[in-house]
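Sample A.
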Amino acid sequence: MLIQISLRSPNGQSRVQIEDDATLKELVELIKAKTELSNFSLKYGYPLKSLDISPSLQDASIKDLKLRGETIVVAPVDTAPPVPALQPASAEPEPKPFKPKGIEPDETSLEWPERGGHIVTAFGGAIGLENPSKTLRNQVADYILNHPNEYNKAILGEEPQRYTTRMRQMDTWGGAIELSILSDIYNLEISSLDVKSLRVDRFGEGKSNRVIILYSGIHYDRIAFCMDLSYPVEVDVTRWATDDDEVLDKARQLAQRLQNMHYYTDTTDFVIKCEVCNWIGQGTREAARHERETGHGQFGEMQITD
């Protein structure tokens, strides 16, 4: 007897039919052909639960799994390690932690009906590393020291040893050099989309896959594709083929929405307030000086109205 199963994947929604006495292996092969994905995990039900497709279990009958009428979420599994998120470039230590303007969660997503989901900003917890900032800094520093001809004093603006020592510290931020290095380490194009200008800067052009990051002037968020806003972050898609211009256009639309809400910060002249003593200053240089003088490290941006 034929049973129908709905699929939700980054390529959109689809439906497959399969005999109920077929094996799980046959279903997996059918999903591969339908979605054009070779490595993936499968989840179904509500709340979502994993469907174990380990080779040792693939002789199980579809009938025994009771998948009739189910919707299966097909989440690509990337064998490459995730790319840590970066902080924006700064020549001197920034006040930490810094709290930017608040944006409600539903304002950081944009429906994408053509692909059956949403384009969203993916925050720190979605990147899959236990200590992403420390991992990033060590990777960048080691890469610089291992490529002395490429990253010398003329490029870095200071001796590599001094630069990397500073980079390993938690109060120093990275920028274009670090994005370029991460592109090489992970063999990915990194497209940085600036919320204020909507400009896209590409690092590692010519590679086959890309990640997209959203730069707000204070920090970078990763762009992800989410098939349903209620799904866990591990089924989000954060890598795309570099010839997929649609995802870049959709990311720019999301950036435009955030720009309209003024979700960006010009760090040279924005007005900030110390949340410890209510001191008010302008720009990150004044905030850094205030922190050095007082030891206060909690800052937030002030909304200025006419």
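Sample B.
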Amino acid sequence: MELRHLRHFVALAEEEHFGRAAERVFVVQQALSNSVRNLEEEVGVPLVLRTTRRVQLTPAGQEFLVGARETLALAGQTVERARRAARGEVGRLTVGFVSGLAFGGLPEIVRRFRELYPNVSVDLRELTAPEQEAGLRGAVLDVGLMLLPVRAANLDSRALWRQPLVAALPAGHPLARKRRLKISDLAPEPFVFFPRQLRATYFDQVMRWCAGAGFTPNVVQEAIEIPTLLSLVAAGVGVFLPIEFFNRLSLPGVVYRPVEDAPLVDIMAVWRRDEGKNPVVRAFLGVAEEMLGAGSGQS
């Protein structure tokens, strides 16, 4: 049974006239008559009483009309669901993110994405960059949000936001009285920082920057999460070099100062190459770029 036969039958039932029904569905009258007759043969009972003046439905035709309308409505909904899926408007998305993005970037992206795509279920997972890379490779994650690109053959990445490093200092520190610092000002200071294995690229970038100024940071305490590191700064344990947007995390006892010639750190979206045409992934990347407003260099 073809949908066009149902459409022809519904048009005939509503118009009660072969000529008007044929015009409504854009076919010649004989084609519509044949379509309805084929439908009756398939159903096995008469659906229409044909008279010289008008067309009437048989009792079977009246019941069939109810089902035909329901079937056509369901078919329309099914087509629309497919079209919405192709536009990335329905589905499920699992997104990994490094902890610091919870304080800037991630809330804006997720809020906007849910406004535009309310029928997409978003599962957020706070993970380190290595955990995200493993999750992407294992198809546990659809998109990862992390600092700096991941170099892997089956992963693509896109820069969403570029931010300079800044100095986080204890509020009573003498350097806090300066409006702007040089990286060499921090040479004698104890540092707090991530373990290298958690954010190797970020760690190495900071170390190269400091080495260019003639010193190696004296890391006296390591911690995994940004809030912990900043709490250590507030306690006077050491100084820290976070990305600028972390200054949104306003903690008592911590001040932020810009540093001359600070390197820029990319905040990246990463996804599996074979998911690059997934409409939900593409929709999320588009919203992420819109909200963070950075360049789109792809690696």
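B remarks: Confidence is low (pLDDT under 50) at residues 294-299. The domain at 90-161+266-292 is CATH 3.40.190.10 (D-Maltodextrin-Binding Protein; domain 2).
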